[in-house]
Specification:
The structure holds two protein chains of two kinds. Chain A is an all-alpha fold. Helix content of chain A is 70%, strand content 2%. In chain B, 43% of the residues lie in helices and 16% in strands. The chains are: A mainly alpha, B alpha/beta.
Chain lengths: 377, 395
């Protein structure tokens, strides 16, 4: 087997990279297959559709990865999107001359403030993240409902740049646009990836998620880091709220509801284990792109009726996750060094990337992803 | 259309129902478009001055919506519903977070104040996607022993058992905006406009926008289960079957579930799937604004127009830009006002839910309860009329 050069190159790759490669392969496969069924599918247009549509979930998947890696979860991101989108839109309708960057800052600050509530309760209150964020999921949503009093902020009352931003393009080649919003999302993803993979702060998050006890013994300030991971997740959800306002134009009090499950699904499909300690932001990004590609493709397949679409999407996501985990395991076995890494060892070293394979991604991601998809998307 | 067999079946069924229950008021609908100037003002008025302006429009409204026979019945013994006591009531919308429902509630509050009654409790699912959530609210209202329930049904016939339980407990159940299809457990349905008229108005707007040479268009609806949207679409398809509309080709019906993001995705998918598409018709206030936004952002306004049922406040931007040259709606505040009057009249025994019962509902004037021609069973009160908005009256 090692006679194939590509495979010997794989040997040098870490499991995380293998996972990401296999997701890229799956996305390519999905695009090829759908292209055979849907007319005019291989076009810049569809690429633009996916990239503009995925921005929100991509940013939220990164937010989710941040907390999930440290063995927490943030179910309040959807409501945070709603609060940030509504407050930002409300600010803009009263201050139409404000610079776009001010609006972004407001959205991010609102998100970070809400995230800090989660962070305080989880890190210093000792309440499990799932309970805290389930509570704030409802709480934040109620706040925006009460604040809005059922009234939408309409596109009419927003500055023109809000509506134009979603269509604005940095470069375009052959119908393939690099939209501004997607470029921002890419920058965010790469920045976070670098932060988590290369900075001490990020490596410590992995350590906490891998083995909290060992992390504590190694002197890692788990509480402070957990707190900041929630602030970060909230800030990213705030940014996603800004993106939501830009994409939809009319912001209601229900803005962003249901996105929390999509973000968990995207992160988990992308290889971020809900058991903590494994996965990458890049993987979460690819997971979001994969799900969104499948979703938007299905909308274009006339043979799949409205009533079946969610079920079909659920099955496709399931198949992807299974294929992905089989592929990842095969590749890492071929690569030789698989399974040697000891999670605890890796985490106590704290600066080393976790070398373990993903802890049986079949069981957890499948359950989550399918349940979410069949309910919501 | 062959892509959605079940949808087609439903539409066919609804169309059949409409044909069987042959009603005579479809001819009045074509002139709804001309009668717009005054009502346009009324529809967008906010709560504080709505009472004054709608007084002027009530005459138009009445002249418009009353058919000859109902006028004869009404002229005799219309009961003027008056405030005799304070009642407790529940005002149950499809969901609380779509602006039209708080607007309807404003009307109900206005009516309650006039009648010296307690404000009805405005409760319901937060999310319109939660179709069966209403059942719980309905059941709770019965347990609390309210004296009247007003509901915009979002749960199809699944709501019927809980509505029946309310009726059995002697509580009048007045549906508004969206009826209980089987009419089980429902006292009377306060219809915003005639469902046939909705189909007619949508077809007329499509023809106005597409021009004499016609073209392809698609429908972007709410959920596949929404009773009112389905009935309107069926009514529109019926109108399209007439020769005058032969040039209009309905290529697809898709559903955005009254969720903004889904509606944006669906609208763009339509544009991609049908390169010759010239119009998206969205009979939902969420869908129409999402479609207009999506088309605007992608710079496709010259190729694809948007129309349907929308709120003037939300659509103004796109109507003035020419992306959504025409759309229609009725006043949700009036609808809530009328629904409260009917519920109050029934709860206090001033009127009965029987065919031919005439009554006067405050500022809105005289109405008559009639057999609902759009359903196999059930009674309705028809409010009407439509206001068609374009750049001249969108404000």
């Amino acid at each position: 087997m090692s006679s194939i050069p590509a495979l010997s190159a794989l040997r040098r790759l870490r499991p995380d990279r293998l996972k990401e490669l296999s997701l890229v392969a799956l996305i390519a496969l999905a695009v090829i297959i759908f292209g055979l069924v849907v007319d005019g599918y291989y076009s810049g247009r569809f690429f633009n559709r996916v990239t503009t549509s995925a921005v929100i979930v991509v940013i939220l998947a990164a937010a989710q990865a941040l907390v999930v890696i440290s063995r927490n979860v943030d179910l309040s991101v959807g409501s945070t999107v709603g609060v940030a989108a509504y407050l930002t839109a409300d600010f803009l309708q009263n201050n139409s001359g404000a610079h776009p960057l001010i609006a972004v800052l407001i959205a991010v600050a609102v998100g970070a403030a809400l995230g800090s509530i989660n962070g305080l309760l989880v890190a210093y209150g000792g309440v499990p993240a799932i309970i805290v964020t389930l509570g704030t999921l409802a709480l934040f949503r109620t706040l925006v409902s009460l604040y809005s009093d059922g009234a939408n902020v309409t596109a009419d009352s927003l500055p023109d740049w809000v509506i134009e931003l979603n269509g604005s393009t940095i470069v375009s080649a052959g119908g393939f646009d690099l939209r501004t919003t997607f470029a921002v999302a890419i920058v965010v993803i790469l920045g976070l990836q670098w932060l988590l993979a290369r900075m001490r702060w990020g490596r410590r998050l992995y350590a906490i998620g891998s083995n909290p006890d060992a992390a504590a013994q190694a002197g890692i300030p788990a509480r402070r880091l957990t707190m900041w991971s929630f602030v970060g997740s909230g800030a990213l959800a705030g940014l996603a709220g800004f993106m939501f306002m830009v994409r939809v134009g009319t912001v209601s009090a229900t803005a962003g509801s249901g996105l929390e499950l999509q973000s968990v699904a995207a992160a988990v499909v992308g290889g971020v284990s809900i058991l903590g300690g494994t996965g990458t932001v890049l993987g979460a990004f690819l997971g979001a792109i994969l799900i969104d590609t499948l979703r938007l493709s299905l909308v274009r397949v006339p043979q799949v009726s409205e009533f079946w679409r969610d079920a079909v999407l659920g099955v496709l996501v399931l198949i992807s996750v299974i294929t992905d985990s089989v592929l990842t395991r095969r590749l890492s076995r071929r690569a030789g060094s698989a399974g040697v890494g000891n999670r605890m060892e890796a985490s106590t070293q704290a600066v080393e990337p976790t070398a373990s394979t993903a802890p049986s991604p079949i069981t957890t991601p499948v359950g989550l992803a399918t349940r979410e998809e069949s309910i919501d998307v | 259309m062959k892509k959605y067999p079940l949808t087609k079946l439903l539409a066919l069924l609804a169309a059949l129902t409409l044909m069987v229950a042959a009603c005579g008021d479809s001819e009045e609908s074509t002139d709804a478009a001309e009668e717009t100037e005054d009502t346009a003002d009324a529809a967008e008025d906010t709560a504080e001055d709505a009472a004054d302006t709608t007084d002027d429009t009530t005459e138009d409204t009445m002249a418009e919506q009353e058919t000859e026979d109902s006028e004869a019945a009404a002229s005799g013994d219309a009961v003027a519903i008056s405030g005799t006591e304070s009642i407790t009531a529940t005002f149950l919308p499809k969901c609380t977070n779509i602006p039209v429902f708080p607007q309807a509630n404003d009307g109900a509050v206005e009516a309650a104040t006039e009648l010296g009654s307690e404000e009805a409790a405005f409760v319901g699912p937060a999310d319109c996607g939660d179709a069966t959530g209403q059942i719980e609210f309905m059941t709770n209202a019965v347990t609390q022993g309210v004296q009247a329930i007003m509901v915009s049904n979002n749960a199809g016939d699944e709501l019927a058992p809980s509505a029946q339980a309310a009726s059995d407990a002697g509580i009048p159940v007045v549906s508004w905006d969206s009826p209980i299809p089987s009419a089980e457990g429902e006292s009377v349905f306060v219809a915003q406009v005639d469902f046939d008229e909705t189909g007619q108005v949508m077809a007329d707007m499509a023809r106005n926008i597409l021009g004499d040479d016609g073209g392809q268009f698609a429908i972007l609806s709410a959920t596949p289960e929404a009773a009112n949207q389905n009935a309107w679409i069926a009514a529109m398809e019926e109108v399209l079957a007439v020769d005058d509309y032969a040039n209009l080709e309905l290529v697809d019906t898709v559903y955005g579930n009254d969720v903004a993001e889904d509606s944006v995705d669906q609208a763009l998918a339509l544009v991609d799937s049908y390169p010759d598409l010239e119009l998206i018709m969205a009979p939902t206030t969420v869908g129409i604004v999402a479609a207009a936004q999506a088309i605007t952002q992608e710079g496709l306004c010259d190729e694809v127009k948007v129309s349907g049922l929308g709120l003037p406040d939300e659509m103004r931007e796109y109507t003035l830009s020419g992306c959504a040259p025409e759309f229609a709606l009725w006043s949700f505040q009036d609808l809530g006002y009328l629904a409260y009057y009917v519920a109050y009249g029934l709860a206090t025994g001033q009127i009965e839910a029987v065919e031919g019962q005439s009554f006067t509902a405050g500022r809105m004037g005289d109405f008559t309860i009639e057999a609902d021609p759009t359903r196999d069973a059930g009674l309705r009160v028809l409010m009407g009329p439509f206001t068609v908005y374009n750049e001249s009256n969108v404000g």
